[in-house]
């Protein structure tokens, strides 16, 4: 995993990956460049749009793709023991970190603290894009494999402030949730009461309609009864009128008949009007001796002033009375 450059008197004598050889140390120089991928952790501070400092922590993965180009820029010479004479690998890492910070700073300066804390993915994309498009990185002969943001933090004071703010906001949301839950319960209770009231109103309305229907039925019945009474009364009046007409007609007929009978009697009795009763009695020709005796008594009564004494025997009266009693029996 190491690319070796063997320089002799300033010229490359041999080069390659994973070489093993002998060399003459006094006039030789060996550069060993690691070819494996490296994970470079970084941490740097930036200022947001609202003048707040944030700490960005992450990791950049890269590998050396062109070791000769890197060897021309940095010193990877090793001594006889294989140790680097200079620590230029740290320079390489720092240059990568600087390019990453440069690619990030312009973006961080445009956003506020809260947005910056939630922008890990955007920062990763900015770092990766900035490193791949950087001329300085291209001159180093390395390939950027990826970038990861492990954390974005504000200062401890601001973190506590944000925590307090978030805590208060969460508390407000909790209070709001409690309020909404209670309000919902009150609203549901109100709807239930409204439903009950509407039900009662509907029941009352139905009862009112039933009462009105009953009243209408009673009124209709009363009107029908009145009409029946009127019809019956009209019928009775008609019957009475007919009866009245009948009575009047009958009275007129009786009167006419009586007048006729009176006329007949008057006409019949008219010849006897001037005849003396004695003559009429004689014309009656009643053979009953008692009738004749009664006429005799009448004559006696009419001529009582001319009679001095009149003796009637008890036997004669008894005979007359006995005959009347026998006739009654």
Describe the fold and architecture.
Among the domains are: 2-154, 2-Layer Sandwich (Tetrahydropterin Synthase, Chain A); 277-304 and 312-324, no CATH class. Helix content is 62%, strand content 18%. The chain has helices at residues 67-73, 88-108, 113-117, 120-133, 135-139, 156-269, 277-284, 289-302, 314-328; strands spanning 2-8, 11-17, 28-34, 37-47, 53-64, 77-78, 142-154. Strand 1 and strand 2 form a beta hairpin. Helix 2 packs across helix 4. 11% of the residues are buried. The mean pLDDT is 82. It is a single-pass membrane protein. Its main location: membrane. It is found in: Membrane.
Annotation field: number of helices: 9
Mean pLDDT: 82
Shape-level CATH architecture of the domain at 2-154: 2-Layer Sandwich
Principal-axes geometry comes out as rod-shaped
Radius of gyration: 78 Å
- Uncertain stretches of 5 or more adjacent residues: none
Q: Please provide the ordered H/E string of secondary-structure elements.
A: EEEEEHEHHHHEHHHH
CATH T-level topology of the domain at 2-154: Tetrahydropterin Synthase, Chain A
Tell how many strands the DSSP assignment holds.
Answer: 7
Strand composition percent: 15-25%
CATH class of the domain at 2-154: Alpha Beta
Give the quaternary arrangement of the chains.
single chain
Spatial order of strands in the largest sheet: 2-1-3-6
The helix-and-strand class reads alpha+beta
Roughly how much helix do the residues carry, as a percent range? 55-70%
CATH H-level superfamily title of the domain at 2-154 = Band 7 domain
Q: Kindly, what is the distance between the CA atoms of the first and last residues, rounded to a whole number of angstroms?
A: 182 Å
Pfam family, one: Band_7
InterPro entries: Band_7 (IPR001107), Band_7/SPFH_dom_sf (IPR036013)
Membrane topology: Single-pass membrane protein
Main location: membrane
């Amino acid at each position: 995993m190491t690319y070796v450059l063997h320089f002799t008197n300033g010229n490359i004598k041999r080069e390659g990956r994973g070489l093993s050889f002998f060399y003459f140390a006094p006039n030789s120089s060996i550069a060993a460049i690691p070819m494996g991928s490296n994970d470079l952790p970084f941490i740097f501070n930036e200022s947001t749009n609202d003048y707040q400092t944030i700490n960005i922590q992450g990791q950049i993965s890269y590998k050396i793709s062109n070791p000769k180009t890197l060897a021309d820029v940095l010193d990877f010479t090793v001594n006889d023991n294989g140790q680097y004479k200079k620590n230029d690998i740290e320079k390489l890492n720092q240059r990568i970190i600087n390019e990453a910070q440069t690619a990030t700073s312009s973006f961080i300066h445009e956003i506020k603290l809260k947005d910056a804390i939630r922008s890990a993915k955007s920062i990763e994309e900015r770092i990766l894009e900035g490193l791949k498009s950087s001329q300085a990185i291209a001159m180093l002969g390395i390939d950027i494999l990826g970038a990861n943001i492990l954390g974005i933090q504000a200062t401890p004071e601001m973190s506590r402030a944000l925590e307090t703010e978030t805590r208060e906001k969460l508390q407000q949301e909790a209070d709001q949730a409690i309020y909404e839950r209670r309000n919902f319960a009150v609203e549901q209770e109100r709807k239930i009461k409204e439903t009950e009231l509407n039900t009662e109103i509907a029941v009352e309305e139905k009862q009112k309609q039933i009462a009105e229907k009953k009243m209408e039925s009673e009124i209709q019945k009363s009107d029908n009864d009145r009409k029946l009474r009127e019809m019956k009364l009209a019928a009775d009046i008609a019957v009475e009128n007919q009866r009245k007409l009948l009575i009047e007609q009958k009275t007129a007929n009786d009167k006419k008949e009586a007048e006729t009978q009176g006329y007949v009697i008057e006409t019949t009795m008219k010849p006897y009007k001037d005849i003396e009763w004695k003559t009429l009695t004689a014309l009656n020709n009643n053979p009953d001796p008692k009738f004749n005796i009664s006429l005799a008594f009448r004559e006696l009564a009419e001529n009582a002033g001319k009679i001095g004494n009149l003796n009637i025997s008890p036997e004669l009266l008894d005979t007359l009375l006995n005959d009347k009693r026998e006739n009654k029996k």
